[in-house]
Amino acid sequence: MLTEWNAYKRVPLPVASAKGSDLWLQDGRRVLDLYGGHCVNTLGAGDPSLGEVIARQWQRWSFATNLLDHAPRRDFQEAFAANLPAGDWVVFCSNSGAEANENALKTALAATGRRLVACFTGAFHGRTAAAAAVSDTKKAAFPQAPFEVLRLPWGDLAEAQARLDGRVGAVILEPIQSLAGVTIPPPGFLAGLRQRCDELGALLVFDEVQTGNGRLGTPWASQHYGVIPDLFTTAKGAAGGLPIGLTVARAAVAARCPDGLLGSTFGGGPTVLAAAAHVASRIASPGFLANVKGASASLRAAILGAGTPTKRNPVASIRGEGLLLGLVLREGESAAAVRDHWLSRGVLVGTSDDPRVLRLSPALTLEPASAARLASAIAESEAAA
Ligand code: PLP
Fold it and tell me: Would you identify the CATH topology of the domain 48-284?
Protein backbone atom coordinates (compact mmCIF):
# COMPACT_ATOMS: atom_id res chain seq x y z
CA MET A 1 0.00 0.00 0.00
CA LEU A 2 1.15 3.54 -0.70
CA THR A 3 -0.32 6.71 0.75
CA GLU A 4 0.94 10.23 0.36
CA TRP A 5 3.25 11.66 2.98
CA ASN A 6 1.13 13.74 5.32
CA ALA A 7 3.07 16.96 4.56
CA TYR A 8 0.30 19.40 3.65
CA LYS A 9 -2.89 20.58 5.31
CA ARG A 10 -5.22 20.73 2.30
CA VAL A 11 -8.31 22.83 1.67
CA PRO A 12 -11.17 20.47 0.80
CA LEU A 13 -12.03 22.01 -2.58
CA PRO A 14 -13.02 19.53 -5.31
CA VAL A 15 -11.58 21.33 -8.36
CA ALA A 16 -12.35 19.76 -11.72
CA SER A 17 -10.61 22.27 -13.99
CA ALA A 18 -9.15 25.80 -14.05
CA LYS A 19 -8.94 28.61 -16.58
CA GLY A 20 -7.40 32.04 -16.03
CA SER A 21 -8.37 32.99 -12.47
CA ASP A 22 -11.39 30.67 -12.33
CA LEU A 23 -11.50 27.30 -10.65
CA TRP A 24 -14.41 25.10 -11.76
CA LEU A 25 -15.62 22.68 -9.12
CA GLN A 26 -16.93 19.19 -9.74
CA ASP A 27 -20.47 20.35 -8.92
CA GLY A 28 -20.25 23.11 -11.59
CA ARG A 29 -19.66 26.03 -9.18
CA ARG A 30 -17.06 28.66 -10.11
CA VAL A 31 -14.48 29.96 -7.62
CA LEU A 32 -12.34 33.08 -8.13
CA ASP A 33 -8.73 32.08 -7.46
CA LEU A 34 -6.98 34.97 -5.70
CA TYR A 35 -4.20 32.72 -4.47
CA GLY A 36 -2.81 31.84 -7.91
CA GLY A 37 -1.04 28.62 -6.94
CA HIS A 38 1.44 30.31 -4.55
CA CYS A 39 2.41 32.95 -7.18
CA VAL A 40 3.11 30.26 -9.81
CA ASN A 41 0.27 31.06 -12.21
CA THR A 42 1.74 34.31 -13.56
CA LEU A 43 -0.44 34.15 -16.67
CA GLY A 44 -3.37 32.34 -15.02
CA ALA A 45 -4.34 28.71 -15.44
CA GLY A 46 -4.19 27.17 -18.91
CA ASP A 47 -2.93 30.28 -20.74
CA PRO A 48 -3.40 29.31 -24.41
CA SER A 49 -0.25 30.89 -25.84
CA LEU A 50 1.97 29.50 -23.06
CA GLY A 51 0.39 26.10 -23.71
CA GLU A 52 1.23 26.38 -27.41
CA VAL A 53 4.84 27.36 -26.68
CA ILE A 54 5.29 24.39 -24.35
CA ALA A 55 3.63 21.92 -26.76
CA ARG A 56 5.62 23.21 -29.74
CA GLN A 57 8.96 22.96 -27.92
CA TRP A 58 8.09 19.53 -26.56
CA GLN A 59 7.50 18.27 -30.11
CA ARG A 60 10.61 19.97 -31.48
CA TRP A 61 13.12 18.98 -28.75
CA SER A 62 11.66 18.09 -25.37
CA PHE A 63 14.81 17.85 -23.26
CA ALA A 64 18.52 18.33 -23.71
CA THR A 65 21.47 17.71 -21.44
CA ASN A 66 23.35 20.83 -20.39
CA LEU A 67 26.22 19.60 -22.58
CA LEU A 68 24.25 20.83 -25.59
CA ASP A 69 23.14 24.32 -26.48
CA HIS A 70 19.62 25.02 -27.72
CA ALA A 71 17.60 27.91 -29.10
CA PRO A 72 15.21 28.31 -26.13
CA ARG A 73 18.22 29.10 -23.91
CA ARG A 74 19.12 32.05 -26.12
CA ASP A 75 15.48 33.14 -26.44
CA PHE A 76 15.14 33.01 -22.67
CA GLN A 77 18.32 35.02 -22.05
CA GLU A 78 17.18 37.69 -24.48
CA ALA A 79 13.66 37.97 -23.08
CA PHE A 80 14.81 37.82 -19.46
CA ALA A 81 17.54 40.43 -20.01
CA ALA A 82 14.97 42.93 -21.26
CA ASN A 83 13.39 43.05 -17.76
CA LEU A 84 16.61 43.26 -15.72
CA PRO A 85 18.04 46.25 -13.87
CA ALA A 86 20.97 47.84 -15.72
CA GLY A 87 24.31 46.05 -15.62
CA ASP A 88 25.97 42.79 -16.61
CA TRP A 89 24.31 39.74 -15.14
CA VAL A 90 24.67 35.97 -15.42
CA VAL A 91 21.92 33.44 -14.76
CA PHE A 92 22.06 29.85 -13.53
CA CYS A 93 18.98 27.67 -14.11
CA SER A 94 17.77 25.10 -11.61
CA ASN A 95 14.36 23.77 -10.55
CA SER A 96 12.97 25.43 -7.43
CA GLY A 97 13.19 28.44 -5.16
CA ALA A 98 15.10 26.59 -2.47
CA GLU A 99 17.67 25.42 -5.00
CA ALA A 100 18.01 28.93 -6.43
CA ASN A 101 18.71 30.23 -2.92
CA GLU A 102 21.21 27.45 -2.16
CA ASN A 103 23.09 28.42 -5.32
CA ALA A 104 22.98 32.13 -4.48
CA LEU A 105 24.37 31.57 -0.99
CA LYS A 106 27.02 29.15 -2.23
CA THR A 107 28.05 31.72 -4.84
CA ALA A 108 28.13 34.60 -2.34
CA LEU A 109 30.26 32.66 0.16
CA ALA A 110 32.62 31.42 -2.56
CA ALA A 111 32.97 34.92 -4.02
CA THR A 112 33.70 36.56 -0.67
CA GLY A 113 35.64 33.67 0.91
CA ARG A 114 33.52 34.17 4.06
CA ARG A 115 31.33 31.75 6.06
CA LEU A 116 28.69 33.91 7.76
CA VAL A 117 25.25 34.66 6.30
CA ALA A 118 22.88 37.27 7.73
CA CYS A 119 19.14 36.78 7.44
CA PHE A 120 15.96 38.07 9.08
CA THR A 121 13.28 37.08 11.51
CA GLY A 122 10.12 36.09 9.66
CA ALA A 123 12.03 35.01 6.54
CA PHE A 124 11.18 32.02 4.39
CA HIS A 125 13.67 30.88 1.75
CA GLY A 126 12.87 27.17 1.32
CA ARG A 127 13.37 23.78 2.91
CA THR A 128 16.77 22.53 1.71
CA ALA A 129 19.77 22.83 4.04
CA ALA A 130 21.07 26.33 3.27
CA ALA A 131 17.63 27.79 2.51
CA ALA A 132 16.21 26.37 5.74
CA ALA A 133 19.17 27.69 7.74
CA VAL A 134 18.27 31.27 6.78
CA SER A 135 14.50 30.73 7.16
CA ASP A 136 12.76 31.57 10.40
CA THR A 137 10.80 28.39 10.73
CA LYS A 138 11.71 25.62 13.10
CA LYS A 139 9.62 23.18 11.09
CA ALA A 140 11.91 23.43 8.04
CA ALA A 141 15.20 23.30 9.95
CA PHE A 142 18.01 20.74 9.85
CA PRO A 143 19.87 19.97 13.10
CA GLN A 144 22.84 21.98 11.85
CA ALA A 145 23.35 24.84 9.40
CA PRO A 146 25.93 24.50 6.59
CA PHE A 147 27.42 27.91 7.51
CA GLU A 148 27.29 30.41 10.38
CA VAL A 149 24.02 32.33 10.59
CA LEU A 150 23.30 35.79 12.00
CA ARG A 151 19.55 36.39 12.37
CA LEU A 152 18.55 40.03 12.56
CA PRO A 153 15.17 41.58 13.42
CA TRP A 154 13.26 42.34 10.19
CA GLY A 155 12.95 46.05 9.49
CA ASP A 156 15.39 47.28 12.16
CA LEU A 157 18.10 49.06 10.18
CA ALA A 158 19.98 50.42 13.20
CA GLU A 159 20.30 46.93 14.67
CA ALA A 160 21.43 45.53 11.30
CA GLN A 161 24.01 48.29 10.87
CA ALA A 162 25.37 47.62 14.33
CA ARG A 163 25.55 43.83 14.07
CA LEU A 164 26.71 43.33 10.47
CA ASP A 165 30.49 43.19 10.30
CA GLY A 166 33.35 42.20 8.00
CA ARG A 167 32.76 38.49 8.62
CA VAL A 168 29.43 38.57 6.76
CA GLY A 169 29.58 37.17 3.21
CA ALA A 170 25.90 37.52 2.31
CA VAL A 171 22.77 39.27 3.55
CA ILE A 172 19.69 37.49 2.23
CA LEU A 173 16.13 38.77 2.39
CA GLU A 174 12.78 38.81 0.67
CA PRO A 175 12.14 42.43 -0.36
CA ILE A 176 8.60 41.82 0.95
CA GLN A 177 8.24 38.91 3.38
CA SER A 178 5.32 36.95 2.03
CA LEU A 179 4.73 33.93 4.28
CA ALA A 180 5.31 36.09 7.37
CA GLY A 181 2.14 37.99 6.40
CA VAL A 182 3.22 40.29 3.56
CA THR A 183 5.43 42.51 5.73
CA ILE A 184 6.86 45.36 3.72
CA PRO A 185 10.31 46.85 4.37
CA PRO A 186 10.24 50.15 6.28
CA PRO A 187 11.35 53.18 4.20
CA GLY A 188 15.12 53.26 3.82
CA PHE A 189 15.62 49.70 5.09
CA LEU A 190 16.71 48.14 1.79
CA ALA A 191 18.84 51.14 0.81
CA GLY A 192 20.49 51.11 4.25
CA LEU A 193 21.33 47.42 3.91
CA ARG A 194 22.72 48.06 0.42
CA GLN A 195 25.01 50.73 1.83
CA ARG A 196 26.14 48.62 4.80
CA CYS A 197 26.92 45.66 2.51
CA ASP A 198 29.02 47.94 0.32
CA GLU A 199 30.93 49.21 3.35
CA LEU A 200 31.69 45.66 4.49
CA GLY A 201 32.27 43.95 1.14
CA ALA A 202 29.27 41.68 1.84
CA LEU A 203 26.91 40.66 -0.96
CA LEU A 204 23.23 41.60 -0.88
CA VAL A 205 20.93 38.79 -2.02
CA PHE A 206 17.26 39.36 -2.80
CA ASP A 207 14.97 36.34 -2.75
CA GLU A 208 12.47 37.35 -5.43
CA VAL A 209 10.76 33.97 -5.55
CA GLN A 210 7.46 35.70 -4.80
CA THR A 211 8.13 39.41 -5.41
CA GLY A 212 9.61 38.91 -8.89
CA ASN A 213 8.25 38.19 -12.36
CA GLY A 214 6.11 41.32 -12.44
CA ARG A 215 4.20 40.71 -9.22
CA LEU A 216 4.77 44.16 -7.69
CA GLY A 217 3.97 45.98 -10.94
CA THR A 218 7.65 46.16 -11.93
CA PRO A 219 9.57 43.17 -13.28
CA TRP A 220 11.58 42.92 -10.05
CA ALA A 221 11.20 44.30 -6.52
CA SER A 222 14.66 45.82 -6.90
CA GLN A 223 13.19 48.18 -9.52
CA HIS A 224 10.14 48.93 -7.37
CA TYR A 225 12.34 49.90 -4.41
CA GLY A 226 15.24 51.33 -6.42
CA VAL A 227 17.77 49.10 -4.63
CA ILE A 228 19.74 46.67 -6.76
CA PRO A 229 21.24 43.57 -5.09
CA ASP A 230 24.42 41.70 -6.04
CA LEU A 231 22.48 38.48 -6.56
CA PHE A 232 18.81 37.64 -6.75
CA THR A 233 16.79 34.49 -7.07
CA THR A 234 13.42 33.60 -8.45
CA ALA A 235 11.31 30.51 -9.13
CA LYS A 236 7.52 29.99 -8.84
CA GLY A 237 6.01 32.19 -11.56
CA ALA A 238 9.10 32.48 -13.79
CA ALA A 239 7.92 29.70 -16.13
CA GLY A 240 4.19 30.13 -15.47
CA GLY A 241 3.66 26.61 -14.08
CA LEU A 242 6.68 24.46 -14.94
CA PRO A 243 9.29 23.91 -12.20
CA ILE A 244 12.15 26.42 -12.41
CA GLY A 245 14.72 28.11 -10.19
CA LEU A 246 16.90 31.01 -11.32
CA THR A 247 19.97 32.42 -9.61
CA VAL A 248 20.98 35.75 -11.12
CA ALA A 249 24.33 37.29 -10.19
CA ARG A 250 26.32 40.29 -11.24
CA ALA A 251 28.82 38.99 -13.76
CA ALA A 252 31.68 40.34 -11.64
CA VAL A 253 30.48 38.31 -8.64
CA ALA A 254 30.17 35.09 -10.64
CA ALA A 255 33.67 35.68 -12.06
CA ARG A 256 35.08 35.40 -8.52
CA CYS A 257 33.80 31.80 -8.15
CA PRO A 258 35.58 28.59 -9.10
CA ASP A 259 34.34 26.59 -12.08
CA GLY A 260 32.10 23.65 -11.30
CA LEU A 261 30.44 25.30 -8.29
CA LEU A 262 26.92 24.86 -9.67
CA GLY A 263 25.14 22.18 -11.67
CA SER A 264 21.73 20.68 -12.38
CA THR A 265 20.32 17.87 -14.54
CA PHE A 266 16.95 19.38 -15.35
CA GLY A 267 17.74 23.08 -14.92
CA GLY A 268 17.87 24.99 -18.19
CA GLY A 269 16.15 22.36 -20.35
CA PRO A 270 14.56 23.54 -23.60
CA THR A 271 10.88 23.12 -22.69
CA VAL A 272 11.08 24.97 -19.39
CA LEU A 273 13.20 27.75 -20.90
CA ALA A 274 10.81 28.15 -23.84
CA ALA A 275 8.09 28.64 -21.21
CA ALA A 276 10.23 31.07 -19.18
CA ALA A 277 11.10 33.06 -22.33
CA HIS A 278 7.40 33.38 -23.08
CA VAL A 279 6.56 34.50 -19.53
CA ALA A 280 9.38 37.09 -19.56
CA SER A 281 8.22 38.51 -22.88
CA ARG A 282 4.60 38.68 -21.69
CA ILE A 283 5.75 40.60 -18.59
CA ALA A 284 7.47 43.09 -20.92
CA SER A 285 4.47 43.35 -23.25
CA PRO A 286 2.44 46.58 -23.35
CA GLY A 287 -0.19 46.85 -20.64
CA PHE A 288 0.89 43.76 -18.68
CA LEU A 289 2.35 45.56 -15.67
CA ALA A 290 -0.34 48.25 -15.88
CA ASN A 291 -2.88 45.44 -15.40
CA VAL A 292 -1.06 44.35 -12.24
CA LYS A 293 -1.43 47.86 -10.84
CA GLY A 294 -5.03 48.19 -12.02
CA ALA A 295 -6.08 44.83 -10.57
CA SER A 296 -4.31 45.69 -7.31
CA ALA A 297 -6.18 49.00 -7.04
CA SER A 298 -9.51 47.28 -7.79
CA LEU A 299 -8.91 44.62 -5.15
CA ARG A 300 -7.97 47.24 -2.55
CA ALA A 301 -11.08 49.26 -3.32
CA ALA A 302 -13.30 46.17 -3.29
CA ILE A 303 -11.93 44.95 0.02
CA LEU A 304 -12.08 48.20 1.88
CA GLY A 305 -15.60 48.61 0.60
CA ALA A 306 -15.05 51.69 -1.59
CA GLY A 307 -18.01 53.11 0.40
CA THR A 308 -18.25 52.77 4.14
CA PRO A 309 -16.70 49.64 5.56
CA THR A 310 -19.33 48.08 7.80
CA LYS A 311 -18.55 46.99 11.29
CA ARG A 312 -18.60 43.40 10.09
CA ASN A 313 -16.00 43.72 7.31
CA PRO A 314 -13.27 41.55 8.83
CA VAL A 315 -10.43 43.43 7.06
CA ALA A 316 -8.87 46.28 9.04
CA SER A 317 -6.12 47.26 6.59
CA ILE A 318 -4.22 46.12 3.50
CA ARG A 319 -0.46 45.97 3.01
CA GLY A 320 1.81 44.88 0.19
CA GLU A 321 2.38 46.03 -3.37
CA GLY A 322 0.92 45.10 -6.74
CA LEU A 323 -0.61 41.63 -6.59
CA LEU A 324 1.13 40.53 -3.41
CA LEU A 325 -1.30 41.77 -0.79
CA GLY A 326 -1.75 41.03 2.90
CA LEU A 327 -5.18 41.63 4.43
CA VAL A 328 -4.78 42.42 8.09
CA LEU A 329 -7.93 41.31 9.88
CA ARG A 330 -9.59 43.01 12.81
CA GLU A 331 -8.67 41.85 16.29
CA GLY A 332 -10.47 38.64 17.20
CA GLU A 333 -10.83 37.50 13.57
CA SER A 334 -9.13 34.30 12.41
CA ALA A 335 -7.58 34.23 8.93
CA ALA A 336 -8.40 30.53 8.49
CA ALA A 337 -12.05 31.09 9.44
CA VAL A 338 -12.43 34.11 7.12
CA ARG A 339 -10.71 32.19 4.30
CA ASP A 340 -13.22 29.34 4.74
CA HIS A 341 -16.13 31.79 4.85
CA TRP A 342 -15.11 33.54 1.63
CA LEU A 343 -14.44 30.19 -0.02
CA SER A 344 -18.00 29.12 0.71
CA ARG A 345 -19.00 32.30 -1.20
CA GLY A 346 -16.84 31.51 -4.21
CA VAL A 347 -13.46 33.21 -3.58
CA LEU A 348 -10.17 31.47 -2.70
CA VAL A 349 -7.53 33.42 -0.76
CA GLY A 350 -4.46 32.22 1.16
CA THR A 351 -3.48 32.30 4.81
CA SER A 352 0.01 33.15 6.14
CA ASP A 353 2.16 32.47 9.20
CA ASP A 354 0.33 35.36 10.88
CA PRO A 355 -3.03 33.99 12.05
CA ARG A 356 -4.62 37.41 11.46
CA VAL A 357 -3.32 37.99 7.90
CA LEU A 358 -4.75 36.64 4.64
CA ARG A 359 -2.71 36.69 1.44
CA LEU A 360 -3.71 37.51 -2.11
CA SER A 361 -1.29 36.47 -4.87
CA PRO A 362 -3.53 35.99 -7.92
CA ALA A 363 -2.55 35.57 -11.55
CA LEU A 364 -1.09 38.81 -12.91
CA THR A 365 -3.65 38.61 -15.71
CA LEU A 366 -6.50 38.97 -13.20
CA GLU A 367 -9.18 41.20 -14.70
CA PRO A 368 -9.69 44.25 -12.47
CA ALA A 369 -13.48 43.81 -12.81
CA SER A 370 -13.33 40.44 -11.07
CA ALA A 371 -12.57 42.23 -7.79
CA ALA A 372 -16.35 42.76 -7.63
CA ARG A 373 -16.69 39.03 -6.94
CA LEU A 374 -14.55 39.44 -3.82
CA ALA A 375 -16.63 42.47 -2.80
CA SER A 376 -19.82 40.39 -3.00
CA ALA A 377 -18.23 37.51 -1.08
CA ILE A 378 -17.31 39.96 1.69
CA ALA A 379 -20.76 41.59 1.60
CA GLU A 380 -22.49 38.20 1.79
CA SER A 381 -20.25 37.21 4.67
CA GLU A 382 -21.02 40.52 6.41
CA ALA A 383 -24.74 39.99 6.01
CA ALA A 384 -24.44 36.48 7.36
CA ALA A 385 -22.29 37.50 10.31
N1 PLP B 1 11.63 31.75 -1.21
C2 PLP B 1 10.39 32.22 -1.00
C3 PLP B 1 10.20 33.68 -0.74
C4 PLP B 1 9.29 31.37 -1.05
O5 PLP B 1 8.06 31.85 -0.85
C6 PLP B 1 9.49 30.00 -1.32
C7 PLP B 1 8.36 29.04 -1.36
O8 PLP B 1 7.28 29.31 -0.92
C9 PLP B 1 10.79 29.54 -1.53
C10 PLP B 1 11.84 30.44 -1.48
C11 PLP B 1 11.07 28.10 -1.81
O12 PLP B 1 10.63 27.80 -3.09
P13 PLP B 1 10.43 26.26 -3.54
O14 PLP B 1 9.23 25.75 -2.80
O15 PLP B 1 10.23 26.34 -5.03
O16 PLP B 1 11.67 25.54 -3.17
Answer: Aspartate Aminotransferase; domain 2 (3.40.640)
